[in-house]
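Co-fold these.
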Amino acid sequence: MAELPASLKRNPSLDLWVQIDPRDTITVRTGKVEIGQGILTALTLIAAEELDVDPTRVRVETAVTGRSPNELITAGSMSVEDSGSALRQACAHARRIMLERAGSDLGVEVVALEVIDGEIGVPGANRTVTYWDVQGGRPFGRQIEEWVAEKLPTDYRVVGKGIGRIDLPAKVRGEGVFVHDLALPGMLHARVIRPPGYHYRLMSLDRARLDRDAALVELVMDGSFVAVIAEEEYAAVALMDLAARSAAWQRIDQMEVPAELSEHLVKREAGAFPIVDGVPREAPLPVLQIPDESMKVRASYSRPYVMHASLAPSAAAALWDADRLTIWSHSQGVELLGPTVAKVLGIAPQQVTVIHTQGAGAYGHNGADDVALDAALCARAVPGRPVLLKWTRQQEHQWEPYGPAMRIDLEAHIDGSGGVQTWSHDVWSFTHVGRPMPLHEGSELIAAWHLAKPFPRVPPAPRLGPEVGIHRNAWPLYRFPQTRVVKRFVADSPLRTSSLRGLGAHANVFAIESFMNELALRAGADPIAFRLRHVDDARARDVIERVGAMAKRSVTAASARARGRGLGFARYKNQQCYAAVMVEAEVDLDTAEVRVNHVWIAADAGRIVDPDGIVNQLEGGAVQSLSWTLKEAVAFDRDGVTSVDWDSYPILRFSEVPTVTTELIDRPQMRSLGAGEATQGPTAAAVANAVANATGIRVRKLPMTPEQLRASASG
Amino acid sequence: MHAGVRRRACVGCPQIGTAAMERVRVELIVNGVVREVDVPAGVPLIFTLRNALGLKSVKLGCGLEQCGACKVLVDGAPALSCVSLTESFEGRRVETVEGLQNGGALHPVQSALLGENAAQCGYCLSGIVMAAKALFDRTPTPSRDEIRAALDDHLCRCGAHPRILRALERLTGHG
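Predicted complex below.
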């Protein structure tokens, strides 16, 4: 007897999860949302499997507050683990209840029954009833209190096979599935006018100039919050430009601009927390016993602020109607967003409904929640009419909460045989968790800071849960005789920061896996053999060996440029998907440009629900990580962020994308492991190791631009 | 690339007077059908396509001609629609993804992308479909490098590039 999944304990009503429609179809609900990760497809497969129906009969309805199971947030690669396990168990209950009803209708024992595409009967006999006969259009009215047996993985027919992404046909046809495409009856369009940077306030706005404009439906002004509403979208754009020209802003403070971010981080006062097995402890920092006759190796690694940079600027629609507020949002945390907006507007949380509507991929906490408050403030000014508000590209680049800069110092002692005796890891960073939380004092939402009666910004606090934020994957999976890991939380970031795909895992794994190669080099060992020597987890060994074999099958072609290969490995959060990434890179020794030709990925995500969905996530994560690794750093000066568009913040292009080959190790008897963030860290390290292999140049500071490569070569 | 009259998307540009600007009637041939629209003078083509004509496949990604999400075909050639003014397309043939479906059947480019599950969020897809359609119209069996070149002004943030390239290479018959 297994324990009930946490999502089911929080939402025990079976009717929240499974609804047998009046005829032929089944609706299942989830509190998770589609963010391009393919959760609709994975949940369709899980429900179809457990209920023994064709996947085409299953409709998945994603998060609508008050109607869906409350699963708080879609983050941390937990969708299949949380919602998948809960839905599977809910479907097992639904199936059992319906079989009991069918058994009594047919006058046979439940154990004698089988289900074929929703049709229940005794094999060989011709009397059958369907799910829709026994339950169609009727609620179950049951609370799920105990675990019931689920289908055995050996009997699976659709899970593990895949059916193609069910949301893609509409997208490839260009249908208006995104919140940006909403065309609600009577809908108005709005745009917001933001200050030039964080530290500005509105001095004056030439209202008369705007009021003279017949296209203006409403000017929303509250402190330094300014928005314009118009009937037509383009009129809202033009009014935004006009309002921006009619506004005078005063700089009330300067942005702190450190000369060198990673040096800045170590100099700031920081809360220090020793980490043991991934968990922070409020305890004295551990002291390592340095063995005699050992060689000390140390190195510092860093990454800059990195942007989510969604392809679509954030957008939301809102309708204020008879004291009820409805928000259409691509937020990853609709259950948290509703009460957070309610607090700013001074209304009760129950007055707000948030309907998740897809946006472009966000890869964490981007502007989705902020723009929802912007839209709500506008909607309140025009009751009864929905308002669609979109940010501009510049607003998205300048105002989203960035993935914070990080600095990692590693030190190890290796003995005469090349074995690591001590391992020490210090990681400095700003908060990785700036999501809206209704119970916090103040607000995390931009517009709330700009109101005439502003909400203070929520002061960042260190997260002390297992494998969260800064210390995610700081604890190495390798087994060393002595391991010391310290999280150093720096409170005051010059830039606004929050969760970006992988959180601390990206830079921690970049550092650990780069350092493992540096140590292997010092020990005169092969990097793969050196890792295997220090790992006692068989699944880790399997993916490392597999990726080595995959890469070996492909011969490096001769090239005028320096070519090399490198490996990176991690188990995400030390508890989710195992991923080993091998990269072949070449470096143009004249221009110092790095080009990645091929990426090989071997991964173990436990029981595979949708194989192509996992491959898509692993590949996409690797390509995105290549972009972060080779190109990306948020730039800012005293006035504010200067990475304001795709020219000033370039990302990887089609001409720069490598061939990617992925193999999965399926473990049907093991639980499914979240895979959406598994390749971010390993890919970054693999590139650094490949560059070092090609040129002898060790790049420890991201991004690996030609300037950085030259600096690393001479440093 | 279509070079129409352009609305610079910068603050302080003199040609944007007020929002309540005069309106113009423009005749476009959209997906093979003559459409006359009454739109504000100075409105970029994308807003006319999306809002006046309801063609939601055309995606607004930057408004700066930097990301490719708004790509359409004008007289058969790829063109970005987020800056150039509607009136500069008077009498021109404009094609969007909505025009590709032949009685519900997908265009081969769409089928190829679907066959490879070549997207994650899918926001960049429409622009890429149109760029690829123009490429295959012009060059039925493009090389790998020609495919990459045709897509190089398109951004994808999910990292679906390898799948998109695989899908289009497969379509050439030697992928």
